[in-house]
């Protein structure tokens, strides 16, 4: 059987956005990883109004822990820890900092290359989607609430 991906994260929404689901797949290539995201059920864009934060485009990261944890409450997925940052870089240059996800009718699809890691480096970590965009400067992050998460697992050949 042909192995198509080396690792995958199955994304699920929190109680804030239970309709969010999808996959983030990681393929090892010579100089790094191809990352393919397909996310569905994202909330519609809305501008910041008063105490309500902007919703979308969505911050998108690798987080330290290999557990998403509790999906309920005002602060879901706290068990995932902070951004994965093995090189001690400033925010915006963490190995786990990804481009934001842009939703089109609730769907975001993205394919990008990174030379910051190989799939085996992130197995057992988590992928996080936040409700707001990332400014890539604020420490630790300006992405807002955590709305969806998935643990990165090795793809097993059958």
* Strand ordering within the main sheet: 4-6-7-1-2-3-5
Distance between the termini: 7 Å
Query: What is the gyration radius calculated from CA atoms?
Result: 15 Å
- The number of E-state strands comes to 7
Mean pLDDT metric: 89
What summary fits the major beta sheet?
A: 7 strands, antiparallel
- Low-pLDDT segments: none
**Helical segment count:** 1
User: What portion of residues is helical?
Assistant: under 10%
- The amount of beta strand, in percent, is 25-35%
* Dominant shape: globular
Q: Specify the structural class.
A: mainly beta
H/E element order:
EEEEEHEE
Question: How would you characterize this protein structure?
Answer:
There is one protein chain. The chain has 158 residues and is mainly β. It has one helix and seven strands. It has one helix spanning 119-122; strands spanning 7-13, 21-29, 32-40, 60-63, 108-114, 126-130, 146-154. Strands 4-6-7-1-2-3-5 form a seven-stranded antiparallel beta sheet. Strand 1 and strand 2 (21-29) form a beta hairpin. The mean pLDDT is 89.
Quickly list its features:
158 residues, mainly beta, 1 helix, 7 strands, 32% strand, globular
């Amino acid at each position: 059987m042909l192995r198509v991906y080396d690792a995958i994260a199955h994304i699920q929404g929190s109680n804030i956005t239970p309709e969010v689901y999808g996959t983030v797949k990681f393929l090892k290539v010579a100089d790094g990883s191809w990352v393919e995201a397909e996310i569905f059920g994202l909330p519609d864009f809305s501008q910041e109004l008063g105490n309500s934060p902007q919703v979308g485009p969505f911050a998108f990261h690798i987080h330290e822990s290999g557990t998403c944890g509790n999906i309920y409450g005002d602060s879901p997925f706290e068990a995932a820890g902070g951004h994965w940052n093995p090189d001690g870089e400033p925010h915006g240059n963490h190995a786990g900092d990804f481009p934001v996800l842009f939703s089109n009718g609730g769907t975001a699809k993205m394919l990008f290359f990174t030379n910051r890691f190989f799939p085996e480096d992130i197995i057992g970590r988590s992928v996080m989607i936040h409700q707001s965009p990332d400014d890539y400067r604020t420490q630790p992050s300006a992405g807002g609430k955590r709305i969806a998460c998935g643990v990165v697992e090795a793809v097993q050949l059958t």
